[in-house]
């Protein structure tokens, strides 16, 4: 069976590995000449994404390209600690969440895809409607052309009310030396984490009802001047790496037909720090459903894949919507949050997020779904 994967980012490269490992002839078409790119922001992988990488055979390569982050700390704007929990895992899990540059993740996945036998074509935009294959995988992100081929009335992304700017700084002396640090600020959220080389990776997520013409030129030091930790990181900035407008997408009703399927952000942009991890899960689960399928049974395999994935991704999308609301809290709501969070985070955080981290996509072949969940 021949498959064409549209998109060579995280979802596309991961699905190429998984499909090739199950014996499918795979060609990846990526419009950009270098989908990894020379720069960009960082991405975090929770343990559910790491288990998918293990199934793909490239967990160690990704761990080497990034660094483990054990703790997730939440701070008020004035520097009060609101919560300190395990990052992207249950506390007893020895597998640590990994943070790395997105470009390094894509590079590791593309190299593994080539080793698995996939062919990768870059710098050429493919019309999914004209793809000559038994299977077409739309892994082309939130602006997916494949989604429009499946359904001309499919929803289009819209501005979320949040834009982000990411960069790198020297580490101020009085800040924590480790952990994923999340500051609830007046104008949004400021995230920073110290890297092993002594630098600080940061992202400013700014709430704005109308998007700025050029987010990269936003005066972040003015926007976060009332939050001392954020202000200290920004004052020590050495580079701005990327700037993006945030987008949201209404639920996608048509995610597959008899030969085409959407995965990752093309099907369900989930946010909540889980976009890459969910895309990796999708790749493994899709390949497992297609293992041993012939051209005549592709449609049934895609329907089964979608039926399995939708409850999980739908639940996560609703969780992400609630998370966005916390970034735009009113002053009164923010004050209530600062009073309540220190008393409830330790008690309820693990219960609220454990379902995310307990998931394992299982091996690519040789094991049934019931065996995996036993």
> How many structural domains in the coordinates?
2
CATH architecture of the largest domain: 3-Layer(bba) Sandwich
* Name of the CATH homologous superfamily of the largest domain: FAD/NAD(P)-binding domain
- Main-sheet strand order equals 6-5-11-12-13-10-14
Globular, elongated, flat, extended or rod-shaped: what is the shape?
globular
Residue-averaged pLDDT, rounded?
90
**Helix and strand string, N-terminal first?**
EHEEHHEEEEHEEHEEEEHHEEHHHH
The main β sheet shows up as: 7 strands, mixed
The total count of helices amounts to 11
Number of strands: 15
Can you describe this structure?
- Strand 12 (188-194) and strand 13 (199-207) form a beta hairpin.
- With 374 residues, the protein is of the alpha/beta class.
- The strands form 3 sheets. The chain has a 7-stranded mixed β-sheet. Strands 8-2-1-9-15 form a 5-stranded parallel β-sheet.
- It is globular, with a radius of gyration of 21 Å.
- It is built from 11 helices and 15 strands.
- The chain has 2 domains: 2-67 and 100-157 and 249-326, FAD/NAD(P)-binding domain (3-Layer(bba) Sandwich), CATH 3.50.50; 159-248.
């Amino acid at each position: 069976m021949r498959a064409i994967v549209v998109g060579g980012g995280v979802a596309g490269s991961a699905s190429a590995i998984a499909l090739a490992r199950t014996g499918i002839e795979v060609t990846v078409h990526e419009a950009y000449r270098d989908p990894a790119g020379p720069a960009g922001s960082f991405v975090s992988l929770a343990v559910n994404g790491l288990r998918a990488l293990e199934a793909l055979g490239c967990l160690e390569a990704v761990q080497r390209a990034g660094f483990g982050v054990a703790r997730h700390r939440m701070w008020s704007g004035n520097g009060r600690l609101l919560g300190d929990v395990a990052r992207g895992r249950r506390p007893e899990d020895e597998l640590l969440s990994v943070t790395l540059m997105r470009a390094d993740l894509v590079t590791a996945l593309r190299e593994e895809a080539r080793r698995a036998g996939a062919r990768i074509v870059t710098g050429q935009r493919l019309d999914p409607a004209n793809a000559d294959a038994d299977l077409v995988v739309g892994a082309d992100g939130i602006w997916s052309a494949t989604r429009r081929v499946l359904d001309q009335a499919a929803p289009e992304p819209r501005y979320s009310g949040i834009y982000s700017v990411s960069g790198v700084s020297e580490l101020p002396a009085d800040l924590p030396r480790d952990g994923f640090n999340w500051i609830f600020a007046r104008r949004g959220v400021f995230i920073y984490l110290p890297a092993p080389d002594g630098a600080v990776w940061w992202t400013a997520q700014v709430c704005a009802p109308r998007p700025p013409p050029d987010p990269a030129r936003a005066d972040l030091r003015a926007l976060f001047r009332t939050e001392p930790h954020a202000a200290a990181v920004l004052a020590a900035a050495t580079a701005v790496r990327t700037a993006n407008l945030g987008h949201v997408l209404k639920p996608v009703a048509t995610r597959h037909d008899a030969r085409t399927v959407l995965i990752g952000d093309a099907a369900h942009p989930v946010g909540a720090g889980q976009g890459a991890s969910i895309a990796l899960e999708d790749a493994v689960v899709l390949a497992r459903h297609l293992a041993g399928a012939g051209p005549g049974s592709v449609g049934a395999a895609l329907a089964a894949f979608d039926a399995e994935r939708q409850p999980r991704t739908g639940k996560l999308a609703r969780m992400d919507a609630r998370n966005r609301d916390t970034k735009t809290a009113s002053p009164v709501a923010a004050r209530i949050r600062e009073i309540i969070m220190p008393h409830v985070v330790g008690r309820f955080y693990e219960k609220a997020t454990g379902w995310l981290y307990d998931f394992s996509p299982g091996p690519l072949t040789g094991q049934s779904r019931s065996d995996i969940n036993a």
